[in-house]
Design a protein that fits this description.
- The complex is a heterodimer of chains A (68) and B (341).
- Chain A has 68 residues and is mostly beta strands.
- Chain A has one domain.
- Helix content of chain A is 0%, strand content 47%.
- Chain A is built from no helices and seven strands.
- Chain B is mainly β.
- Chain B has a domain of 103 residues: Thrombin, subunit H (Beta Barrel), CATH 2.40.10.
- In chain B, the strands form seven sheets. A four-stranded antiparallel β-sheet of chain B has the order 3-4-5-6, with no helix packed on it. A four-stranded antiparallel β-sheet of chain B has the order 7-8-9-10, with no helix packed on it. A four-stranded antiparallel β-sheet of chain B has the order 13-14-15-16, with no helix packed on it.
- The chains are: A mainly beta (68), B mainly beta (341).
- The interface between A and B is large, with 50 and 57 residues.
Chain lengths: 68, 341
């Protein structure tokens, strides 16, 4: 997200430039992966599968993702 | 990475707010192009099966059924089971149309309707689909309907404003199945500040318990989760509305499933709108304020002190039992642990 400024009304607003999700290991907090840009992800929900091999997003961006 | 650690891996739905590639590269996990599989529609809800072989979706699509000119389009709702790697439809359940005044009338108006939820039981034998106030319990192999549970809608809240009577009809915000597959919990929004939770016995369909949530901006909550043992339901209830500063009121509540009583409550100085619970009862709390970034906390009941002051000064890896902070450009991800209350 980048911040743009509206000089007309003197307010700042945010503009998305990328939509990704990231996965961390809950045991040691190490990062695992950040996804590619997924248009529509901000208006979607992401859930992880029970064994952690896949993630699914639904809403504007409806996909299953194979995780590393 | 071992599977059990990946099970515990927290998916942090971090919409990364990139302002510079260099900083991102230092802080976020490495970006990769993940292999993706299409879902058949813009699903309203979806979940991957416990064996990770299939995905169940709930979709609302325009019906092929003809409608007379001048009348509203007709929409059809279906629950589908997909072998996503092979793009193969395994089974389909067509949701019966609602009728009567309780129906959300989803087939004749804007198809964007309130919460629909599909979930597998943990053993993978059943699929539960909550649609239009009815829970359809389906056999996971072929989506044959085994039984239904009609939810008991909470009483509408009535308000008087400026001489006008406003009736707030309750809507479902979330549904989750207990880890043992015996109970279904439903979170209702009665209005922006008031919610209630109902528990249903999945085998009998009987409502076994219900209680109101503490007053708070639950209309901005994303829902609730069971802990791993299924004895707690953890709910995020923001203590202010987004874009206003959070106050000191608790915004994470853990309810005892057996009694409906609050067993834990936390005040974190965030506008917590979403939670997840790890296998060790750690709680991730996600800030939903509109400051242009995202904060995530983990709280754990094993540890005895809150970090005083700004935990943001602590660094990743310094003490995982105490506080860890990532600053992903304008995205903040905070992991904290909390005391036994």
């Amino acid at each position: 997200m980048k911040v743009n400024f509206d000089w007309g009304d003197g307010t700042a607003y945010s503009v998305p430039v990328d939509e990704t999700f990231s996965i961390w290991n809950f045991s040691n907090y190490e990062g695992i992966v950040t996804s590619q840009n997924i248009p529509g992800l901000r208006e979607s929900v992401v859930r992880l599968s029970s064994k952690g091999r896949y993630a699914v997003s639904f809403g504007r961006a409806s996909f299953v993702y194979q995780l590393p | 990475m071992k599977l059990h650690t990946r099970v515990a891996a927290a998916i942090l739905f971090a919409h990364l707010f990139f302002v510079g590639a260099t900083l991102h590269a230092q802080k976020a996990p490495a970006q990769e192009h993940l292999k993706t599989f299409d879902l058949p529609c813009n699903a309203k809800s979806a979940e991957i099966s416990p064996d990770e072989q299939s995905v169940v979706t709930d979709c609302i699509v325009e019906s092929a059924e003809a409608h007379p000119p001048g009348t509203k389009e007709i929409f059809a709702e279906t629950v589908k089971l997909w072998d996503f790697e092979r793009s193969r439809l395994i089974a389909e359940f067509s949701v019966p149309r609602g009728n009567g005044s309780d129906s959300e009338d989803q087939f004749f108006a804007n198809p964007q309707v309130s919460g629909r939820f599909v979930r597998f039981t943990a053993d993978g034998t059943l699929v539960e689909a909550l649609i239009d106030g009815t829970v359809h319990i389906l056999r996971a192999t072929d989506l044959a309907e085994l039984r239904t549970i009609r939810l008991a809608k909470p009483q509408s809240l009535v308000q008087e404003r400026g001489g006008t009577t406003i009736v707030n009809k309750p809507v479902v915000r979330a549904m989750e199945i207990s880890p043992d597959g015996k109970l279904t919990a439903v979170l209702w929004l009665r209005d922006t500040l008031h919610g209630s939770i109902q528990l249903y016995d999945l085998s009998s369909g009987a409502e076994v318990r219900d209680w109101n949530t503490p007053t708070g901006w639950i209309g901005h909550s994303k829902g609730f989760v069971y802990n791993a043992s299924g004895d707690l339901l953890v709910v995020a209830i923001p203590n202010n509305t987004p874009c206003f500063p959070p106050n000191r009121d608790p915004d994470v509540f853990a309810f005892d499933v057996q009694t409906g009583e609050v067993r834990f409550k936390f005040a974190r100085g965030l506008l917590t709108g979403s939670v997840a619970v790890g296998p060790d009862n750690s709680v991730l709390a996600v800030d939903v304020n509109c400051r242009g970034y995202l904060e995530i906390e983990i709280q754990n009941s094993k540890y005895s002190t809150w970090p005083a002051g700004k935990a943001h000064e602590r660094c990743p890896g310094e003490d995982p039992a105490y506080a860890i902070w990532f600053h992903l450009l304008q995205t903040e991800v905070v992991f904290w642990h909390l005391q036994e209350r």
